[in-house]
Amino acid sequence: MEKKKDQWSTKLGFILSSAGAAIGLGAIWKFPYMTGMNGGGAFFLLFIAFTIIIGLPILIAEFIIGRGTQKEAVSAYQKLAPKSGWSFIGHWGVIGAFLLLSFYSVVGGWVLIYSAISIPGMIISDSANYGELFATITGNPLITIIGHLLFILINIIVISFGIKDGIEKTSKILMPLLFIFFIVLVFRSVTFEGAIEGLRFFLQPDFSKLNAENVLYALGQSFFSLAVGISVMVTYSSYLNKDVSLPMSAGSVSIMNIFVSLLAGLAIFPVVFAFGLEPAEGPGLLFIVLPEAFAQMPFGELFLSLFLLLFLFAVLTSSFSMLEIITSAFSEKKQRSRKKTAIVSGMLVFIAGIPAALSSSSLADFKIFGLTIFDASDFLVSNIMLPGGCLFIALFIGFRMDKSLIKQEFTSANNLSDGIYHVWFQLMRWLVPVTIIIVFLGSIGVI
């Protein structure tokens, strides 16, 4: 007898968990430094446009595939297109989630380490050089490996408990707290002397700074931030009841994602310019800027500790989704124990992530096409696997999936007109795949 499938207990729990999967490192860690390295306001504007025009339609599509089948990523495509090759999209997603989590958990380990050392007040001091502190932590092989391992272990524990008792409960409490704390940080950041230059850099587009590569990065960032392209949201929506509007839920997730990205930029760039830091610092930007900002506040160490803990939980809600797609793909299809599958999957991710964890220390000189293992992993996932996965999903929705099921899932539990459905469907069939192909070909110099 088949075991009853786990379900989200509430619509809010699903939306917050999906937002948690989308927000995490994508909006808070990666978005600021990608914006700093790729043109500031122009990159931000492109990111918003891609999120609304490309990312949101794909997010709806993943929700439709997942809830329409009530299956995890691999089985969903097998059910919708039996005896065909389309199931490779699910496999592509599982592999993408595995690779993404392998380096994502390294950054999660950094956040975990920073959270731990902030509690006894070991970060902020009058003579601290926060750039050197970041370099010291990431340049220590033992520390980074331990952080990476602990982060994976937390993921294994939560995923072992399942959807309702694991992911949903944590997301309901921690996501709202993160929003509130971020707003407080923004209010402080914009009051620094010289903050106006940071606001101008972030909010005033200068399109002369853009090139084809920047456009590809903006597209990849929109996919990374929404967690689309690797069928994470297919798996999440497979646990969803039929009384929830998928377009409305996807819209809520997208708006929250853009809002948190906006807050991240407003919190980071005023501080960067106020203290003469470099906006193109790279992956360490957040870890250098945050202590600098909190050091200027009363009870700064306490607030930094609280923020880092909330940031850690936001990072975890994203990583939960990645380990979930890997775990569910093997536990549901093969009827294996969720706990055992989560442990094995998590340990394999840990092993695969060790080279990325050592990219700033023992393997710093090892390059792949001029990139460290960490940066190469990031580039592969963000700029090839995520756009590729989104392209395949768009083609699947537009040309292979049963149209009556698509419309049924799109219109269920909402009052949206047929016109809105048809606009979305044509976007998925033509605009989304054509845009992805043009941006990708432009980035490699073909057009």
UniProtKB/TrEMBL annotation:
Entry keyword annotation includes Ubl conjugation: no
Keywords tagged on the record: Membrane, Symport, Transmembrane, Transmembrane helix, Transport
Database matches in InterPro entries: Na/ntran_symport (IPR000175), SNS_sf (IPR037272), YocR/YhdH-like (IPR047218)
Membrane-topology descriptor: Multi-pass membrane protein
Localization per record: Membrane
Keyword Transmembrane: yes
Signal sequence interval, chain numbering: none
Gene Ontology MF annotations: symporter activity
SUPFAM superfamilies: SNF-like
Lineage top rank: taxon: Bacteria
Transmembrane segments: 12-31, 43-65, 86-113, 133-161, 173-196, 216-236, 257-277, 297-320, 341-359, 379-399, 420-444
GO annotation, cellular component aspect: membrane
A Pfam family: SNF
NCBIfam families in the record: Na_transp
Family, per entry: Belongs to the sodium:neurotransmitter symporter (SNF) (TC 2.A.22) family.
Protein name: Transporter
Lineage: Bacteria, Bacillati, Bacillota, Bacilli, Bacillales
